[in-house]
Write a structure and sequence with these properties.
The complex is a heterodimer of chains A (326) and B (407). Chain A is of the alpha/beta class and 326 residues long. Helices cover 58% and strands 8% of the residues of chain A. Chain A has 16 helices and five strands. Chain A has a five-stranded parallel sheet with strand order 2-3-4-1-5, with helices on both faces. In chain A, helix 6 links the parallel strand 3 and strand 4. With 407 residues, chain B is an alpha/beta fold. Chain B has four domains: 138 residues, Rossmann fold; 60 residues, Orthogonal Bundle (Helicase, Ruva Protein, domain 3); 102 residues; 70 residues. Chain B is 59% helix and 8% strand. Chain B has 19 helices and seven strands. In chain B, strands 2-3-4-1-5 form a five-stranded parallel sheet, with helices on both faces. Chain B has a two-stranded parallel ribbon with strand order 6-7. In chain B, helix 4 packs parallel to helix 5 and helix 18 crosses helix 19. The longest helix of chain B has 27 residues. The radius of gyration of chain B is 28 Å and the shape is elongated. Chain B starts with 6 loop residues before the first helix and ends with a helix. The chains are: A alpha/beta (326), B alpha/beta (407). Chains A and B meet through helix 10, helix 11, helix 13 and helix 16 of A and helix 13, helix 14, helix 16, helix 17 and helix 18 of B.
């Protein structure tokens, strides 16, 4: 923290070469084989967030291309590019020119590929075939099952597992030491609990906690977690459970508009809270099914606020039934 | 008076001196009603016609009071079958001779009477008009509707016109003074213009916007876009929430010029205020969420054939879920989402650009940048100004984006 310039620790401590990567042993070993052979197939990296998919792709490319890295490697994010046409154009212009180095192909990482519709994936498959001589694709996704069969069969599959708590803990201690942050054991445990195997989240929490300028213990971590996940979420649910729908909808609006929380995240948070709600057990299953439906609708492009409002009204009603009201 | 009293009631003129516009129509009715004191005139019924909210009902009730008639009213919310009309007619024919206090009968919102639900209702009205021994007043927006052709001939036609903007403004100003609201002239003009000659809806709008405020400025009302309310949306909303069948609720929308997406926003905003029972509300919100996904599918896949289902869900589905009304008068609220859209548009643009810069740095999507990185960066920035400065440099942020971090 004494440095004069700022850097995100997720970037600062991101491994530069495959040798630096400590986790995902099997994945890394196979990738190193590609480097030795100076060749690789299209790849499919599947696994939860923060388990090193992007890092592995970056390291592989650096190890393969060396100095030619910058012109031979590109990243595209499927959820940021509007439509398959844009992706196709970008691929075309990227793959058209030959790589300058000794390696005869370039690498293109397509992140969040499972966010593409199956139509878009079909189109992507043709693009992959067309440029296969000059460009190798690494598709990164959370769930390989969301990638269509024909693409899966053309890719070498790699599974990224959630990092072991001990590995994350070790990394956190090392970073804290390097950054001059005092990190208590209770702080480590709290980070592990909050980040559930997601190293990116763990680093971000540690860095934000470090900015408070005191010993990072569990209190500081929960403070950070509370600020990051707006208290409004709890307040919103509380208002709904008390039957005050109008107040709950007000909170919902703040969460979505002012905090800019993504609806998909909010769905997940509400889902994990369901079992703590004071509503009849038999209604919890019903509520979960409604949450699932809302989740699906939002992913289809429905309005997040309207869908959530319907959930909140349902929750308010269920809670009322628990209290024995009408 | 309690705060929930509609201003249209609270500021209703107490006697005929308070009736300012449509003077010609007013004196015409007065002359005709007075003539009943001397015997049955040749035209036993008066047919008042003109747009809503210009004083048709008001003029009759003021004049009835002044000239000593008991006014018997029947309007759209009553069930007007042949039997119902005949019951009233019988009352009018028999009692009027026996007592000094005479009755006058008013059948309001006549256009609502037709078709299957008011079987034979219009025929009964025609017969009432021929036989009555008490004055009968009919009212409808359009007297030239073919279904009124036979009625028209036996009635004295009295036309009511839209209220001029100048008049509406002065009435609204008077109300503001009495309510203690300091109001900008320009704000009153906006409300008056939107009302399109409908004084009642202007007063309702004023109450919705101004009740409980100490001042009302142009910016408080400027977001009222006249395009949104060619056919006053409040009427459409009232008809939707009060409808007893899905069909009627749907027709409330389909017979208006209001954009259906706009109506959706208004219904969504107002449902929790108009539907006090939680069970009803949960059902209504479910109907709205179903409408929302149907609209999404209609738009995204150009499946416009889905539109009618969506409309029936957010009009009829909401209407029939209501088994209880709110206590007291509940004004309609302007949709927050539409207000937010313009207010936060700038902010969202800043956030999007910031997220793009962050995403590039972190090899991730803008969505992940917003959710996984931005909250932490904001937390750090708020801890120290110096850190905020360094982060701004790291991400090459402009001044606006830097402010967003520390806000």
């Amino acid at each position: 923290m004494q440095d004069l310039s700022f850097e995100l620790w997720t970037e600062k401590y991101r491994p530069r070469t495959l040798d630096d990567i400590i986790d995902q042993r099997e994945v890394v070993d196979r990738l190193k084989g590609f480097v030795r052979a100076r060749s690789m197939p299209h790849c499919l990296f599947a696994g939860p967030p923060g388990t090193g998919k992007t890092t592995a792709a970056l390291c592989l490319a650096r190890d393969l291309f060396g100095d030619a890295f910058t012109e031979s490697f590109a990243e595209l994010n499927a959820s940021d590019e509007r439509g398959i046409d844009v992706i196709r154009e970008r691929v075309k212009s990227f793959a058209r020119t030959r790589s300058l180095g000794e390696i005869p192909f370039k690498i293109l990482v397509l992140d969040e590929a499972d966010n593409m519709t199956s139509d878009a994936q079909q189109a992507l498959r043709r693009t992959m075939e067309r440029y296969t001589e000059t460009c190798r694709f690494i598709l990164a996704c959370n769930y390989s099952s969301r990638i269509i069969e024909p693409i899966q069969s053309r890719c070498a599959p790699f599974r990224f597992l959630p990092l072991a708590d001990e590995d994350i803990a070790e990394r956190l201690r090392a970073v804290a030491k390097a950054e001059g942050v005092e990190l208590a054991e209770s702080g480590v445990r709290a980070i592990l609990e909050e980040s559930s195997g997601d190293l990116r989240k763990a680093y971000n929490m540690l860095q934000a906690a470090g900015a408070f300028g005191k010993c990072v213990d569990e209190k500081v971590i929960y403070l950070v977690a509370g600020r990051v996940h707006p208290v409004e979420v709890q307040e919103m649910l509380k208002a709904a459970l008390q039957g005050n729908f109008i107040a709950a909808r007000e909170k919902l609006r703040r969460i979505l508009v002012e905090y800019g929380v993504a609806a998909s995240d909010l769905v997940r948070q509400v889902h994990t809270e369901v079992y703590r709600f004071n509503i009849p057990e038999n209604l919890k299953a019903e509520l979960v099914s409604r949450i699932g439906e809302a989740d699906y609708r939002i992913s289809e492009g429905a309005n997040d606020e309207v869908q959530f409002s319907a959930l909140l009204a349902q929750l308010a009603l269920f809670a009322q039934e628990r209290r024995g009201g009408r | 008076m309690p705060a929930a009293t509609p201003w249209t009631e609270k500021y209703r003129p107490k006697d005929s001196s308070g009736f300012v516009d449509n003077e010609e129509a007013f004196s015409c009715i007065r002359k005709w009603l007075t003539s009943w004191k001397l015997g049955t005139p040749s035209k036993r019924a008066a047919f008042l016609h003109g747009p809503t909210g210009v004083g048709k009902t008001l003029s009759v009730s003021l004049l009835a009071g002044e000239l000593g008639f008991d006014l018997v009213e029947m309007n759209a919310s009553d069930n007007r079958t042949r039997e119902a009309v005949e019951r009233i007619a019988g009352m009018a024919a028999s009692e009027s001779d026996l007592r000094m206090g005479r009755k006058a009968i008013m059948l309001d919102e006549l256009e609502g009477m037709s078709g299957t639900e008011d079987r034979g209702g219009l025929a009964a009205v025609a017969s009432l008009v021929r036989k009555t021994r008490s004055p009968v007043v009919l009212a409808a927006a359009n007297a030239w509707d073919p279904k009124f052709s036979s009625l028209r001939e036996s009635c004295l036609l009295v036309e009511f016109k839209r209220i001029p903007i100048r008049s509406i403004v002065s009435k609204l100003r008077e109300i503001c003074v009495l309510e203690g609201i300091a109001v900008e002239e320009e704000a009153l003009r906006v409300i008056a213009e939107r009302a399109r000659g409908d004084l009642r809806s202007a007063i309702i709008d004023l109450q919705a916007l101004g009740q409980g405020m100490s001042r009302l400025s142009y910016s408080d009302v400027s977001w009222l876009d006249p395009r949104d309310r060619q056919d006053p949306i409040f009427d459409v909303l009232r008809n939707i929430f009060n409808a007893e069948t899905v069909q009627r609720a749907r027709n409330a929308l389909n017979t208006s010029d209001v954009d259906y997406e706009m109506v959706f926003e208004w219904v969504y905003e107002n449902a929790p205020y108009q539907i006090p029972n939680l069970g009803d509300l949960a059902q209504a919100m479910r109907a709205l969420s179903n409408a929302d996904i149907l609209l999404t599918r209609a738009r995204s896949g150009r499946h416009w054939h889905l539109l009618p289902y969506a409309i029936e869900e957010f009009t009829g589905g909401v209407a029939v879920s209501r088994t209880q009304r709110p206590r007291g008068w509940t004004p309609f609220k302007f949709p927050q989402r539409i207000r937010d859209m313009s207010r936060t548009r700038a902010e969202r643009a800043i956030r999007a650009e910031l997220a793009r810069k962050l995403a590039r740095r972190c090899h991730t999507s803008t969505a992940a940048a917003i959710n996984e990185y931005l909250p932490y960066l904001r937390l750090i920035s708020r801890q120290s100004e110096a850190e905020a400065e360094r982060i701004a440099k790291y991400l090459d942020l402009n001044e606006e984006e830097r402010c967003y971090l520390t806000r």
